[in-house]
Structures are given as C-alpha cells and as structure tokens.
Amino acid sequence: MINIRKAMICLAAAAIAAVSCQKDDTLSYNNMTMGNIVNGKFVSDQGNTFNIIEQLCTGKLEDEKRAMVICDVLNETEGASGEYDVRLTNFAHVLDKDAVRLEDAVEGDIITQNPINIEQLWFSGGYANMLISYYVKPGSETKHLVNLVYSKDDKGRYILNFRHNGFGEVLTQENASQMMLGTAYVSFPLSKFITEDNAKLVLTWKWYKSIDSRLDLNTITDYTFEYEWKRTGFEHKF
Predict the structure, then answer these.
(1) Is 25 exposed, middle or buried (0-12, 13-18, 19+ CB in 10 A)?
(2) Would you put residue 13 in left (φ > 0), alpha (ψ -120 to 50) or beta?
C-alpha cells in the first residue's frame, strides 16, 4: 500500500529568498520542473541535469525517487553538456507508481473507486503527471491508495482509469465539517506499457458534481479527458 502524503509542500507559496536588484549572471530564477533523482542528481523530464551547489530549503532531495523542484539556474556546468549548477529553493515529493492492467485490478483494494480530483494534468518524460486532491480527516492515520488502471479498446485507444481507495475515509454530507482537502503530486510512467510513439488516451476519474462552484456531496460523477499522446512530447493540459 502506498501512503500518499496528506499535505504537499506548498511550492507556489513557498518563502523564497529575496532577489537582489543588482544585475547578476543567474540564468533563471524560480525555475519549476519535475524529474527523477538519478545517482544523487536531479534529471528533469526535459533531460537536463541539475547540480545542486546551494540549498535554501530543508530536506534531502537525493532521498527522493521523483520530485517537483523550484530552483535558480545559476550557470551551465563547466565542461558538461545539458548540465546546470542550481540553487535549490524548494522541492516536493512525487509519488512514482506503475500503472496496473485492468485484468489485474478486478479484486482487492484496487477495485474501489472513491472520489478523487485531478487538479492539474501534464505529460512529460513519458509520464502522466498529476496534482490531485482528495478529502482526509485531520490527524487520521488512514493510508489512502491511488492507482492508474489501463486497458486497450477495440479502437486502439488506451483507456486510463484513475482510482482512489480512502479505506472508509470518504467525504459525506454528514462528516463534511470534520474533513479537509489534501493534495499530492503523482506520476505514472506511461511509456512502460504504451508501445507506440503516438497513441490516443482516454482518462477517466470519479469526483463530486460541481454546481455553481460548490460540490454536490450527494452526486458522484464520471469525468473524462481525451488526449493525443506523444512519447517524447511535453504538454500541460489543465
């Protein structure tokens, strides 16, 4: 079972050191990108390697497998192509999890489909990346489970069903005052099971119906998103 962190590091609102008004040689401030930690170094989905020579936040990035980082790109690393020396200002954990074939997800914990929302979705590095939200009870030790279940239909499209099991910790009309919205980053490596360089995807998930910007807790509805996926592409969808 995977324990999703119930409160992601708030990257957008993170306190970042003030930048001097004086001109310097910094290539880029507050660069935000996602990637993997390879041999102790951060490698972005675009293929650039970031060498951390200064760090302004707490925690050890090298202890992560995949992460979202904010950094100042100081300069190109001398004598290296595609490498940059950076100042790390903040980072957030990203759950990196393989998708599950539909035929392997017909029983047990994976079959449950409690409501979960995809706040943001983008494709990079062969991954489907998501900022997700779901309701939790503050102080609870319940571990939530998420999975991406896939199959292929007779039209050759990949059907991706995003599932969530709250193990009883689910928002209802009765317990709404006791619950709070939690968020997390999650990535699924699509290139592990999609063999084509280009493919049609249909992503589905269940979330509460929205009426005038308010959630109708009595109505859970199906959401669908279709996409023309490219193995080497990068695109932020919403």
Answers:
(1) exposed
(2) alpha
Residue with tokens 């279940």: 149
Output phi, psi for 221, to 5 deg. -125, 165
> If you ran DSSP here, which 8-state letter would residue 62 be given?
G
**DSSP structure class, residue 154:** T
Contacts of 106 (CB under 8 A, 6+ apart): none
Q: By C-alpha distance, which of 53, 64, 55 is closest to 8?
A: 64
Name the pTM for this structure. 0.87
* Rounded distance between C-alpha atoms, residue 152 and residue 200, angstroms: 10
Structure tokens at 237: 């969808």
Residue 75, strand partner residues? 85
Q: How does pLDDT run across 83-96, given as a tens digit for each residue?
A: 999 999 999 999 99
Q: Which residue from 201, 202, 162, 203 is spatially nearest to 184, judged by alpha carbons?
A: 162
DSSP H/E element including 232: none
pLDDT tens digits along 169-221 = 999 989 999 999 999 999 999 999 999 999 999 999 999 999 888 899 989 99
Q: In the structure encoding, which two tokens stand for residue 28, read together?
A: 């880029």
- By the 8 A CB rule, do 71 and 89 touch? yes
- Asked if residues 115 and 206 have their Cβ atoms less than 8 Å apart, the reply is yes
3-class secondary-structure state, position 30: strand
